[in-house]
């Protein structure tokens, strides 16, 4: 048993945190996250240069990491800085490409930006409800359907699309030049796209892709949970700091016992969220990966809502303003619940085992 | 014990309902329904329609142009307005300054300002909060110094709602810096066109512009703009804080929100079925609905008590606390029901370019975030709990 | 609109509260509630003399009340005093007898004690799962099955038993001398019985009794909710009083803001519980009676748990003791959740309307 | 980062598991499983079995008869004991007084008392709390006055767990009434057979007898029964409060409780189906299970930190707070799952007279009520939050 990071991972965490702290102050984040292209292309290049994408892929796929803990280290640092760069799509694509045994050098070097198209408006979280369908055409395939909130899709070069293929699911690569892509910014910053597939030409990446998709989703969940933990840490620290500085009726509001206890309860939930994220990271790739990913995403959903809402409330008006960083942390914490399965969806997944 | 409205009240309800059906323009109610910000023109148009009917200054006495309604009638009117998705009446002139002038203002002030509020000549805003003095009004710092026939005002107000539209602002200013706390504060009316006033927008969490900072630099207004006695502004502030809190539970707005949650949950698919058939989500709705049904009665009980006793009691703090919690929960459910469809920034994706979920839900996430304010402003829920502790629990 | 009690009901409330306050101090309650026969026969007689049972029955059945508000006035007073007398069984029986047009003088005069046998161990809350079955035999019927937690059954003379009869439900009267009745005391005081029916002779009271049973249950729910409101009022007041008196670190613990705010939150939920109980009482007998009864029982379940648990916690150790009245109020508040449908059951009933 | 036990730890776990399988008598584990009160004999028998193996004084150093385990080994041992439904070790002699004597006691005291704790000669209880001094030990009033070679003790202790079985009690007494707060308190050992001691049972909410009041009237004990320095008892009290808190999250007991909830929910029928198939109830279980899974890791993280740093930090307060909340929630679910079947008073209905639900659940409601104590004693959750506020948030 050892809860210390390996030296390599600790170094990655430190480097990334320092880098983002220096190059990416929150004012800059707020600026770039809400204006097209909804991220900072220069920063993206620098993150790639730092080796962030290599850290997310295993050696056999050309990377230098790829375990649950590699993922959580990277995303916790991204979460602390509220970074809207399209790393999630790269991570999930990388895992699918690895499962397919496909070359991913273009992804890892940042030469090609990948996004994943899984979510549909009527199947926001459930792989088995995907309606997008693949049809064989000549040597290749065409896809029809609609993929929603493709994160990073507003700047992607290639979208890996999950579609029905025969009795199962397969993954196809779609070049954004061949398809109707509408990019947009999001409530919590960063960008996504609607991808309208209408007999769109596509290349088969992986047939029988259900397991690989589930693994990519689980990896994405570990990433989102770690991102949330990083964002919650900053939000909580900022709130406690504010409690020390802000005075009301002549004394720092941090002297009010009600706010103290609520700050403690937030801390408790953050530590619990950190724990279950560690567990999900440890189990990623194993037989219980989905179970623990569901547990983690459920707990993160609850903790993140508590932290977001309580931080705003305990700040009073100031955290309701665009200028104050906490408002953006709060938005991210709330909105990530709807990525890759929300609180209730994942609770239901955990419950499924009980009836047996 | 009888929970039903009297025959007279039912007749009144029908009258209000008929009026709204006939006179509330469809473009106004859809603007309300969509949840985005209303334009100044929309709000003014609606005020004018109500004013024509004599139903604008709902809480003013008849002799000043109010309809002379009982608390129950006011409640019914608000309930019906919510039901029809009419805009809220902008409260600063009508529900705040109006009653203050009627109680504390001079005959000249009443004669001059009240008709202009009614006919929309003057749009008022409120100058109470300051940076560093939120729930704690007694520590406010904006100074008004007497210089001959004028007040010279210096300082800063914040959270000035819809100040960007305002012609006038009513301010609490410190007129005697040597006395403590609440003493030494005066209530002064200021024309926003006076030199030295600067209004700066505050962008809110969801990106909207509804509040402002107002800066005062050597702003000179006539001595006669003082309302009530000099240094007795705190009396007016207290009057306003306890006045007219019957609508504070926001029951009508929560009923709108509940209706919306159900509508979204019927349209949204999860696991191949409408979300409303998902037991976990349905349970969340049901729990909120039960809380709201209870709140309806709690609200009526307080209303009845206010009607019997002539004034609302400290129980209204309970309405504020629970009312905001219920409303915020419902806004959370709407956002939660939409799932990823709530993600786009409002205006980015709409029916015009790409159909993305029900188009009338584009403001949903924004409204969830914006509504976090309701448990903060007007005395935060923490302040309300402090009030109940002192007044009802006597701890 | 009028939230004042009528003069008659106010008088009944005052009389009953005064009577129980004088004759039935909490020490006495604790004594009689946990020792067979788990109530105070003398007190029962006095309650009957005061006209409590008449207040629960409408004029056409020989009573003088019977509306939802009559019921809530009586049970709120009983709840304040934590009274374990078997009034609930009398109320529910009275409504069934009234629906059957049967004479109920013996019930109203207290000459015969009635209890209702609805609950079964595998159908604790759902009428449509009742397994007890009636068989015609000669002129009469026999019943077979098992009725559980028949409240007041430990001292009843007659048990009105709900049983399957043909395609529907019917109610039968069973004389306790004809049947195996095992009485016992309950965790929260008061008594109940297990009733084992094994070809037991029974008299048909009402065929097609589903509606009457539902009405009796709804009336019982109004009663339980009002009882809980009365008990919560006392529990909350006792707690606030304790906060004023108990000192820690040299000051009254009621000066700690955390406890203040929690006491306010309890009060808020109690007021909400009172409101929904008023609503359920107003709707009793009407088309929406079941809907509002479910709402009330759900909210009471949540509020009562909060009040019970918070009162114990805020008292510290003292409310964990048998000697201190709050422990018994807390037990009653918790245990009444399992009478006539618990929090989740009634939430589900409210949800049922949504799917349509 | 590695969440797995080392090979050595796994081997140790297997050893413990095998020992329990062989030596934990079935009648003892069923008594634990049933949830009723254990008899003194049962607890003593189990202590003796562990003592034979050298596993009784799990936190004593080897030289005093402890097994010399690492924090992880102690954790594994506790985990396995819970898994096997072994009784908890009665902590007063073994986990409280033992470490105190080892750190603060004289050689004579160690030589005399420690072996008697191990072999069960002396059953100890704790004399800390007083009426009026619960979480606030500094205000305690029990006086010990020196009279020649004796202490003369007068006062009252309360919440003395299992004091009805005790041969000895260790007490905090005020030995200097003139100094403030924590100063002037001493730690004194008292033979319960001394004249002037009276033990009165406190009946608890669920009807059980596990705590007592202990009254001292001119109780005379030898001067040599003082442990450590006179007037420095507070140092010992603090040592005990922060010592050995690794098991404080109660994870093993919550795992038992979760298993029980699931078992009940599989047996209980609702709406014609097992309760565990009811989505609302299953959701309640799932949420508690997730919280518990997280708590397992939080617990291990704190354990790892304690092992690395040699002492548990203030984070253990978080374990106490959340650990008790989870455990209490699970006890609530068990009672809730039983529904009306939880109503009878324990002992009133059992398989002997009438089958009433699963017979092994008769203590369920009682345990729910009894367990409310866990968030009150040992420093209430409110006190724990105050501690975290000061130490971790520095507010």
What's the short story on this structure?
The complex is a heterotetramer, with 2 copies of chain A (356 residues) and 2 copies of chain B (395 residues). Chain A has 356 residues and is of the alpha+beta class. Helix content of chain A is 51%, strand content 18%.
Description of the molecule:
Chain A has 356 residues and is an alpha+beta fold. Chain A folds into three domains: 102 residues, Orthogonal Bundle (Butyryl-Coa Dehydrogenase, subunit A, domain 1), CATH 1.10.540.10; 95 residues, Butyryl-CoA Dehydrogenase, subunit A, domain 2 (Beta Barrel), CATH 2.40.110; 144 residues, Butyryl-CoA Dehydrogenase, subunit A, domain 3, CATH 1.20.140. Chain A has twelve helices and nine strands. Chain B is globular, with a radius of gyration of 22 Å. In chain B, strands 1-4-5-8 form a four-stranded mixed sheet. In chain B, helix 8 packs antiparallel against helix 9, helix 9 runs antiparallel to helix 10 and helix 10 packs antiparallel against helix 11. Chain B has three domains: 83 residues, no CATH class; 117 residues, Butyryl-CoA Dehydrogenase, subunit A, domain 2 (Beta Barrel); 147 residues, Butyryl-CoA Dehydrogenase, subunit A, domain 3. About 2% of the residues of chain B have low confidence. The chains are: A alpha+beta (356), B alpha+beta (395). Chains A and B meet through strand 6, strand 7, strand 8, helix 10 and helix 11 of A and strand 9, helix 9, helix 10, helix 11 and helix 12 of B.
């Amino acid at each position: 048993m050892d809860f210390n990071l390996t030296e390599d991972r600790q170094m990655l965490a430190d480097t990334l945190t320092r880098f983002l702290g220096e190059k990416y102050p929150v004012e800059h984040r707020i600026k770039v996250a809400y204006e097209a292209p909804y991220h900072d292309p220069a920063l993206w290049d620098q993150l790639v240069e730092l080796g962030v994408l290599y850290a997310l892929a295993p050696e056999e796929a050309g990377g230098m990491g790829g375990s649950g803990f590699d993922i959580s280290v990277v995303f916790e640092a991204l979460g602390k800085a509220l970074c809207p760069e399209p790393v999630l799509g790269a991570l999930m694509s990388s895992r699918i490409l690895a499962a397919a045994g496909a070359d991913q050098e273009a992804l890892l070097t940042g030469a090609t930006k990948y996004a994943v198209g899984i979510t549909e408006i009527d199947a926001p979280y459930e792989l088995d409800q995907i309606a997008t369908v693949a049809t064989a055409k000549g040597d290749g395939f065409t896809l029809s359907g609609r993929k929603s909130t493709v994160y990073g899709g507003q700047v992607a070069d290639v979208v890996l699309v999950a579609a029905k293929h025969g009795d199962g699911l397969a993954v196809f690569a779609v070049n954004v030049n061949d398809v109707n892509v509408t990019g947009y910014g999001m409530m919590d910053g960063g960008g996504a796209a609607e991808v309208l597939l209408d007999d769109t030409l596509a290349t088969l990446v992986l047939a029988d892709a259900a397991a690989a998709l589930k693994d990519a989703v689980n990896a994405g969940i570990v990433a989102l949970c770690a991102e949330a933990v990083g964002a919650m840490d900053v939000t909580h620290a900022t709130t406690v700091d504010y409690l020390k500085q802000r005075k009301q009726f002549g004394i720092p509001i941090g002297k009010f016992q009600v706010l103290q206890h609520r700050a403690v309860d937030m801390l408790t939930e953050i530590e619990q969220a950190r724990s279950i994220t560690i567990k999900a990271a440890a189990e990623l790739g194993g037989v219980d990966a989905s179970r623990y990913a569901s547990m983690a995403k459920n707990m993160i959903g609850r903790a993140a809502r508590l932290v977001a809402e309580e931080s705003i409330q305990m700040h009073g008006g100031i955290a309701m303003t665009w200028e104050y960083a906490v408002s953006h942390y709060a938005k991210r914490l709330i909105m990530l619940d709807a990525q890759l399965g929300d609180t209730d969806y994942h609770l239901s997944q955990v419950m499924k085992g009980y009836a047996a | 014990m009888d929970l039903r409205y009297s025959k007279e009240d039912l007749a009144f309800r029908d009258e209000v309902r008929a009026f709204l059906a006939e006179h509330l323009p469809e473009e106004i109610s859809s603007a309300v329904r969509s949840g985005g910000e209303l334009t100044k023109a929309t709000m003014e148009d609606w005020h004018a329609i109500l004013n024509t009917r004599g139903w604008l200054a709902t809480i003013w006495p008849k002799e000043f142009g109010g309809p002379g309604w009982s608390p129950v009638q006011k409640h019914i009117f608000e309930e019906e307005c919510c039901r029809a998705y009419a805009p809220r009446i902008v409260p600063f002139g009508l529900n705040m300054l109006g009653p203050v002038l009627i109680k504390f203002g001079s005959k000249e002030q009443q004669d001059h300002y009240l008709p202009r509020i009614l006919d929309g000549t003057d749009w008022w805003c409120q100058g109470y909060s300051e940076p560093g003095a939120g729930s704690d009004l007694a520590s406010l710092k904006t100074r008004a110094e007497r210089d001959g026939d004028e007040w010279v005002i210096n300082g800063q107000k914040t959270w000035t709602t819809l100040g960007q539209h305002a012609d006038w602002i009513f301010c609490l200013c410190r007129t005697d810096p040597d006395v403590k706390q609440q003493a030494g504060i005066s209530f002064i009316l200021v024309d926003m066109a006076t030199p030295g006033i600067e209004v700066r927008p505050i962008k809110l969490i969801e990106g909207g512009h509804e509040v402002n900072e107002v800066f005062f630099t050597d702003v000179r207004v006539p001595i006669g703009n003082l309302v009530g006695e000099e240094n007795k502004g705190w009396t007016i502030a207290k009057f306003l804080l306890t006045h007219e809190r019957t609508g504070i539970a926001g029951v009508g707005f929560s009923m709108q929100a509940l209706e919306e949650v159900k509508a979204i949950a019927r349209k949204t698919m999860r696991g191949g079925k409408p979300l409303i058939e998902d037991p976990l989500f349905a349970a969340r709705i049901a729990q909120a609905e039960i809380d709201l049904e209870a709140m309806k009665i709690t609200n009526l009980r307080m209303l009845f008590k206010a009607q019997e006793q002539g004034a609302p009691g400290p129980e209204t703090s309970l309405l504020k606390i629970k009312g905001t919690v219920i409303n915020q929960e419902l806004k959370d459910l709407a956002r939660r029901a939409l799932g990823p469809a709530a993600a786009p920034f409002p205006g980015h994706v709409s029916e015009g370019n790409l159909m993305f979920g029900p188009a009338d839900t584009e403001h949903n996430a924004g409204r969830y975030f914006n509504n976090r304010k309701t448990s903060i402003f007007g005395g935060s829920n923490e302040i309300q709990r402090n009030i109940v502790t002192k007044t009802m629990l006597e701890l």
